[in-house]
Structure formats: C-alpha cells, structure tokens
Amino acid sequence: MKKVPGQIMLNEIPLSDAEFLESYNKNIPEGYPKVSLKILERFKEAHTSLFKANGSWSLDQHRKRMIDWLPQNI
C-alpha cells in the first residue's frame, strides 16, 4: 500500500497505552505472551528514546520491538 503524502497510515496513528495494549494482545500470534499495562510501563522505562515526542505508542514503531523485548523481560 502506497502512502499518500500527508496521509497517516493506520499503523502510524498515535495510540494510548490502553489502545496499544488491546491491539497488541488481539493481534499477537497464539501462544505468544500477552502484555499488561505493567509490562508496557517497563518497556517505556527501558526504551525512553522511543517515546520522546508525546509518550504515545504506534504499531509501526513499537510492536516489533515489544515482540523482541518481551520474552527476556516477563
């Protein structure tokens, strides 16, 4: 899918902690660990540079990093 200049893609939309949590847990492969708000807070503390702008999440920027980080940090 090509990006139209000035258009925000769905995976780039800023999400609150609760919105990211719901989307992440809903779309994670079966058998993979789910996350909680406490885990999201720990991720934010470990990756402060990813949240400089406004502290919001985006699927594009954070989902893959969470998947990689989670198994060693639960």
Q: Can you describe what's shown?
A:
The chain has one domain. It has three helices and no strands. The model has no long low-confidence stretch (mean pLDDT 85). It is mostly helical and 74 residues long.
Strand share of the residues?
under 5%
Number of helices: 3
Low-confidence stretches: none
Largest sheet: none
Shape verdict = globular
The chain-level structural class is mainly alpha
The ordered string of helix (H) and strand (E) elements is HHH
Which range best describes the helical content: under 10%, 10-25%, 25-40%, 40-55%, 55-70% or over 70%? 40-55%
What is the average of the pLDDT values?
85
Give the C-alpha Rg. 13 Å
- How many runs of DSSP E, i.e. beta strands? 0
Give the terminus-to-terminus CA distance.
35 Å
Number of domains: 1
Chain-wise SSE layout:
Blueprint: H1 17-27, H2 37-46, H3 59-69
Summarize the structure.
The chain is an all-alpha fold and 74 residues long. The chain has helices at 17-27, 37-46, 59-69.
Give the key terms.
74 residues; mainly alpha; 3 helices; 43% helix; globular
